[in-house]
Amino acid sequence: MSRIGRMPVPLPKGVKVVIDDHDVSVTGPKGSLSQKFHPEMTIEMDDGTVVVNRPSDSREHRSLHGLTRALLNNMVVGVSEGFRKRLEVEGVGYRAEMQGKTLVLNVGYSHPINFEPMDDLSYEVENRGKSIIVNGIDKELVGEIAARIRKTRPPEPYKGKGIRYANEYVRRKAGKAGKV
Length: 180
Known about the structure:
The protein is α+β, with helices and mostly antiparallel strands and 180 residues long. The protein has two domains: 9-80, Outer Surface Protein A, domain 3 (Alpha-Beta Complex); 83-165, Outer Surface Protein A, domain 3, CATH 3.90.930. Helix content is 20%, strand content 37%. It has two helices and 13 strands. The strands form four sheets. Strands 11-12-7-13 form a four-stranded antiparallel sheet, with helices on one face. Strand 5 and strand 6 (49-53) form a beta hairpin. The N and C termini lie far apart (57 Å). The relative contact order is 0.14.
């Protein structure tokens, strides 16, 4: 049986889960999320926890079991604690700044790049424009927006300039052989 799928999802204080057939809504102090799950997975409340069960041991049901439980857990953690991704801006003249709630990136192009905040999503800039933090309750959306920000100027292998994740290792290349 799936190790992830059979673990119950604990509900922290202040988090409410409403299960309507296969539509699950989770409400907490930071907001609310809802998602429709596969109709063959059974999702039940069990005194302060949410339990996911599968109908058989087929390959598809085993994979859906762990997926459903992980998505439910991400919803519960998101509305109670939230998710954050940290990005670092490296390079001479590269910087990020906030103009109201809009994130503005100056990363070597002839024009600044703007990122408008979405629903339940916010940006923070620290270290004098060298660090960006994406906050939100939806883990998938936070990761997607962080990837879009990184994609505006990915780190290059020669000097390491660009936008990278906080703990990302950028493999460096030597450059021209005659320049030793």
